[in-house]
Please model this.
Amino acid sequence: MKKRSNSRGTPTAGDGEKERTSSSGDQSIASAKYKSGASSAPTTPTKRSGNNKNGNSNNGNGNGNKRKEEIAQTFVIVNERPVDDISLDFFYKPHTITLLAVSVLAVMYTAFVRNEANLDDNLWAGLLCIVFFFLIVSVIAFPNGPFTRPHPAVWRILFGCSVLYLLMLQFLMFQNYSTIRNIFYWIDPKLKNFHIDMEKEYGVNCSDVSWERVKGHLDVFAWGHFLGWAFKAILIRHMGILWAISVMWEITEITFAHLLPNFIECWWDALILDVIICNGLGIWMGLKICKILEMREYKWASIKDISTTTGKIKRAMLQFTPESWSAIRWLDPKSTAMRFAAVIQLVIFWQVTELNTFFLKHIFEMPPSHFIVIGRLVFIGLFVAPSVRQYYVYVTDTRCKRVGTQCWVYGAIMVSEAILCIKNGKELFERTQAINIVIWLTVQVLISVSFVYVAVLWQQRQLKKGSTTPTKRQGDSAVNSPTKGNLSPPKEKKIK
Model:
C-alpha cells in the first residue's frame, strides 16, 4: 500500500519534553507517531491478498498487513519525511491560495511595467518566469526527501532545481555542439574569448621539490579540495569507502591524463598534497565532525518557551543545524553479496560524477572559476546529500523496496551528463583506446572490491573484540529494525 504525506512541513521546533528520533533516518519509527504526516494521509485502496470479507487476516494476527504498512511507511519517511511536534503553526500551514495570489500579482506587475525593447531581456524574463512558477509548484507538490531542516520547502525547491537541470540536459542532448556553445555565449558573452590551452604543460620539473613550489600549489583550489573531501566524509561517513574513492580518483586522473592535460601531476603533488594532505585531512576532519555530532545530546525546546531574546535568536540559528545525528553502517560482517555490490556501485558512480565535472568544463571550454562551473558544483553538492541518504536506506533496510525519488533523479542527471560529454567530445575521446577504458574499469572494480572487502574484515575483527567485552550498546543493537544483509542499523540517540 502506498501512502503520501499530507504534511507540507516547515521547520521543526519540537517540545522539550517529548522524545524524538533522528531526521537522518531511524527507519523503525512507528506510523502512529506522525499524526500530522504520513499516517494521516488518505491511502489508495488496494486489494489485500489473504484477507477475508471482514478485513481480517487469514493468519489471525495481521502480520502480513503490518509488514505492508512498515514497507509503505519506510519509503514515505525517506522520500517525504513529515514534520512532527509543530510549535509555530504559521510556518506549517500551506498558504496555497495566498501564494497563488501573490505569485500571479507579481508576474502581472512585472509583465506590464518592464521595458520590452530588448530581445535578450525579454527571453531572460520569460525563462525566469518559467523557473519561478516551476519552483512554486515544487514547493506545493514535490517531496522534500529525508530532511526537514532548515525547512522542508528548501529541499523541495532543490528537488525542483534538479528536475529543471535534468530537463535542460535532455534538451541539450539533442542539439549539436555549435548550438550548445552559442547558448553558453548568450548566457555569458565573455566565454567567446576563452579557450582551453592545450599547449600548456603540467607536471613538469618534478624533481624540483622546493618549499616555494609546494607553497605555490597550496592555493584556493587546494582549500576547495580539502573542504570538498570533508563534505564527502560527512555524507558517506565510512573511512574505507572514502579512502577507496580517494585512491581510485588518483588512478582515474592517470588514466585520463592524455585527454585532460590538467590531470598530469608530479608524484609529490598527487601522492602527498592530494592523497595525504587534502584528501586525508579532509576525510579526518569530516569524520571527526560526524563523531562529535553523533555523541551530542539533542534537546530541542520550542521557541515559544524561550523567554530571552538572545535565546530565541540562538534557537533560530540552530534551525540550520541537524535535528539529530545517527551513525552510518554501510557494511557488516554478515553483509550479503547484494549489499557488497551496492557499495562498490556507489564508489564507481562517484568517480563518474567527478569525471563529468572536468569533462564538461573542458569540452565546452569554461574556466574553473566560471559561475556556471561553481554553481553546478554547489548544486550537485547539495542535491547529493538527500540522494546518498535515500540510497543508504534502500541498500540497508529490507523494508524499503524502491529507491527514493531524489536518488533516482540524481542517477538520471549523472548518466545524462556523461552522455552529453561523450556525444559532444567525439574528437577528444577518439584519441583514447578502448583498452584503456577496459583497464580503467577493471582497476576500479578490483580496488573498490579490495577496499570494501578489507572494510568487512575490519568489521569482523571489531565484532570479535566486542564479543569478548560485551557492552550495553551491543545489547541494544539486537532490537533494532531488520536490514538487508542481516544487519540491524545502529540505534540512534534520542532527543531528551
About this structure: DSSP finds 16 helices and no strands in the chain.
